[in-house]
């Protein structure tokens, strides 16, 4: 899987948790998951669990704290896959 | 047995919104508890007029208090009784199905199985039974738990 494919996959994971109308294009690397995409903390946990399953990685509490934007999530995924 | 009573005592609810009498069993994977819907509970006056039936939201609440909050207190206790008392819970989602009514005075049993408890989110599969062991309602309930040491 290329980095681009991984990013698309991450977007697809996030999409069902968006509260309103939002299209796939609304999810940009700089989008803040809670403040901009309006994802609540409970759904953020589900996103993390879906990410773990999709990429076969395990995230820790520190990763969760660092995961503020979509780009942060991408960075964490990339570092775990190394 | 006494530790179960401690959990019920640590719940942040009181009459008329405490829907747990007793915990029957509890471990890391789930729990079971009972409650009797007392005939004088105030909501029976209006649900329904002259035809008291326990509201579905109250059945959901009972499932959440036994299945999610009691289990959450147990999972967060960490051997420290003080942590237990400070836990706060925010219900984040419920997905319930109702099969049978519960009338005033009925005793129910709630069974809960942990689906996962990660990053402070506890999700449980719950089911409520009446005294005939008939399924009253079932579903999935999730909440965010916050212990006093968190912030």
TrEMBL record, chain A:
What's the main place this protein lives? cytoplasm
Q: Does the record bear Lipid metabolism in its keywords?
A: yes
* Gene3D superfamilies, alphabetized: ACP-like (1.10.1200.10)
| Record's function text | Carrier of the growing fatty acid chain in fatty acid biosynthesis.
The post-translation modification note in this UniProt entry reads: 4'-phosphopantetheine is transferred from CoA to a specific serine of apo-ACP by AcpS. This modification is essential for activity because fatty acids are bound in thioester linkage to the sulfhydryl of the prosthetic group.
Where is the protein situated, by its record's location annotation? Cytoplasm
The UniProt entry's sequence similarity note says:
Belongs to the acyl carrier protein (ACP) family.
Q: Taxonomically, which superkingdom? A: Bacteria
Question: Which positions carry O-(pantetheine 4'-phosphoryl)serine?
Answer: 41
User: What pathway does this protein act in?
Assistant: Lipid metabolism; fatty acid biosynthesis
* Swiss-Prot/TrEMBL keywords: Cytoplasm, Fatty acid biosynthesis, Fatty acid metabolism, Lipid biosynthesis, Lipid metabolism, Phosphopantetheine, Phosphoprotein
Residues in the signal sequence: none
Organism per entry: Muriicola jejuensis
| Name of the protein | Acyl carrier protein
Annotated GO molecular function terms are: acyl carrier activity
Automatic annotation (TrEMBL), chain B:
Q: Which GO terms describe its molecular function?
A: lyase activity
User: What's in the keyword line of the UniProt record?
Assistant: Lyase
Record-linked Pfam families: FabA
* TM annotation in the entry: none
Q: What is the organism of origin for this protein?
A: Muriicola jejuensis
| Protein name (database record) | Hydroxymyristoyl-ACP dehydratase
- The domain of life is Bacteria
Specify whether Magnesium is a keyword of the entry.
no
* Keyword Phosphoprotein found: no
Q: Which InterPro entries match?
A: FabA_FabZ (IPR013114), HotDog_dom_sf (IPR029069)
């Amino acid at each position: 899987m290329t980095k681009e494919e991984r990013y698309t996959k991450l977007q697809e994971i996030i999409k069902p948790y968006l509260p309103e109308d939002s299209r796939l294009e609304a999810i940009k690397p700089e989008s803040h998951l809670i403040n901009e995409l309006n994802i609540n903390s409970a759904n953020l946990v589900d996103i993390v669990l879906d990410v773990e399953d999709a990429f076969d990685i395990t995230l820790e509490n520190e990763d969760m704290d660092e995961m503020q934007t979509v780009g942060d999530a991408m960075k964490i995924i990339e570092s775990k896959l190394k | 047995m006494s530790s179960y009573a401690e959990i019920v005592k640590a719940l942040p609810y009181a009459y008329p919104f405490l829907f747990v009498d007793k915990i029957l069993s509890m471990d890391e994977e789930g729990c079971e508890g009972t409650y009797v819907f007392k005939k004088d509970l105030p909501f029976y006056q209006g649900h329904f007029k002259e035809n008291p039936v326990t509201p579905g939201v109250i059945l959901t609440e009972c499932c959440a208090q036994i299945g999610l909050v009691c289990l959450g207190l147990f999972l967060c206790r960490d051997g420290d009784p003080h942590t237990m008392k400070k836990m706060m819970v925010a219900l984040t989602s419920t997905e319930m199905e109702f099969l049978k009514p519960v009338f005033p005075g009925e005793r129910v049993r709630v069974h809960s199985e942990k689906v996962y408890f990660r990053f402070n989110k506890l999700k449980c599969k719950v089911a409520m039974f009446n005294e005939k062991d008939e399924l009253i309602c079932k579903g999935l309930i999730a909440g965010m738990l916050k212990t006093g040491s968190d912030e």
